[in-house]
Design a protein that fits this description.
Layout: H1 2-9, H2 30-57, H3 62-90, H4 93-112, H5 116-129, H6 134-143, H7 149-178, H8 183-200, H9 213-220, H10 222-235, H11 245-273, H12 275-293
Helix pairs in contact: 2-5, 2-7, 2-8, 3-5, 4-5, 4-8, 7-9, 7-10, 10-11
Length: 294
């Protein structure tokens, strides 16, 4: 953490005085934001619960899981450039439709199949399919207005962070309460199906949801929420707080939002404005002056 803070203090702040664009929530970009939220949900369900299923249910050794991830990295490096060229050649609509259909098949496999080798194969296939997601960015490039690319990308990442915080909690509660590891994957089937339907209607409804003030406010602190929710949820468990699960969840969410807001006000914004770098420089000069005086 100290090293990270030191590196952050050395970031360039030549544009710290410039006016920064706010997150843009506009109907024009509603489809992109919705697709990014659904993609975040899908990604979180599979990356977390597929690994848990292989390790906890099918007892795949940790060393084998690391090897699988290594194979995934190699395959992604090989397929990503080809996928980018495919999107350039045919556009993003067809690859994204293929992506959604393939993801539905992968989720169905984890919800139905009980062969560990088949599930490992599906695990690898899902990671390779992730390269199709470049189509989301190219779609935004095609519709974005001049000067709005960066805030729209930031809002898309915000939607992804919202999914990253909410989906693991809901999926874990679903698994824990039902005792059935396959239920989160059935939810994934539903989400992938919704993504397919949304992608097929470029000018359809369901876009105004992300224009509300709560979503915009959450977007501003989304990185802090993403960063701090795990330690908060780890420290505040039922052994420390003898309360019901709904009350415990509300306490966790409230503390996570409070910590994220403090981080946004006291850490993120000073770094963006270059104030932290100035503080570090002044502290360094003061230390050098003391050393010289001694």
């Amino acid at each position: 953490i100290v090293v990270s803070a030191a590196l952050c203090s050395r970031l360039s702040h030549h544009a710290s005085g410039a006016k920064r664009a706010r997150l843009i929530v506009r109907r024009r970009y509603g489809l992109y934001y919705l697709l990014m939220f659904l993609e975040g949900c899908r990604r979180q369900i599979f990356s977390i619960f597929a690994s848990f299923a292989l390790i906890l249910v099918y007892h795949v050794p940790l060393g084998d899981m690391l090897m699988i991830q290594f194979v995934n990295s190699i395959l992604i490096a090989l397929t990503a450039p080809r996928m980018g060229r495919l999107v350039d050649r045919v556009g993003e609509r067809t690859p994204l439709m293929i992506y959604s259909v393939a993801i539905i098949a992968v989720f169905l496999g984890y919800a139905i199949v009980q062969s560990v080798w088949a599930l490992i194969a599906l695990f690898i296939i899902d990671n390779v399919l992730f390269t199709f997601s470049v189509g989301f960015t190219t779609y935004l490039h095609r519709i974005v207005l001049p000067g709005e690319l960066t805030p729209c990308l930031a809002m898309g990442v915000t939607m992804n962070h919202v999914a990253a915080v909410t989906v693991p909690i809901g999926g874990a509660l679903l698994w824990q309460q039902s005792g059935n590891y396959q239920l989160p994957f059935w939810v994934g089937v539903g989400l992938a199906t919704v993504a397919l339907i949304v992608g097929l209607q470029a000018d359809g409804p369901l876009r105004r949801l992300f224009g509300s003030r709560p979503f915009v406010a959450l977007g501003r602190i989304s990185y802090g929420v993403y960063l701090f929710h795990w330690p908060v949820y780890t420290m505040l468990d039922r052994q420390r707080l003898d309360v019901s699960v709904p009350v415990l969840t509300l306490v966790r969410v409230a503390i996570t939002l409070a910590v994220a807001l403090l981080s946004y006000r006291l850490l993120e914004m000073p770094i963006r404005r270059g104030e932290l770098a100035g503080f570090v420089r002044r502290a360094t000069r003061s230390r050098q002056a003391v050393v010289a005086a001694c």
